[in-house]
Specification:
Blueprint (H helix, E strand, L loop, with lengths): L1 H8 L3 H22 L4 H15 L1 H16 L5 H9 L1
Helix pairs in contact: 1-4, 2-3, 2-4
Length: 85
């Protein structure tokens, strides 16, 4: 249901794969930036980086689901050739 809605909106699998890659970069950037904070604020900054680090698997798997929806079912070309003969 969610995949159908995202597909109707216009999102494709590669959009979410790109978002997953970007969130990995954002997580690394936030983690490096957390090292510049003093000790009292560092914990919160590191938790923020860890929270963003949870996004990539979710986005990647939703992207895979969208790609599966975009592809024709396996064996459909073989079935069409057999019916067409």
């Amino acid at each position: 249901m969610l995949v159908d809605l995202l597909h109707r909106i216009g999102l494709r699998g590669w959009h979410l794969h790109l978002g997953a890659t970007g969130s990995v970069s954002l997580c690394i950037g936030l983690w490096i930036r957390a090292k510049t904070h003093d000790q009292s604020e560092r914990g919160n900054a590191e938790r923020r980086a860890l929270f963003v680090g949870l996004w990539p698997p979710l986005l990647w798997l939703i992207g895979d689901s969208l790609e599966r929806r975009e592809r024709p079912p396996r064996g459909s070309a073989r079935l069409r050739r057999a019916v067409g003969k």
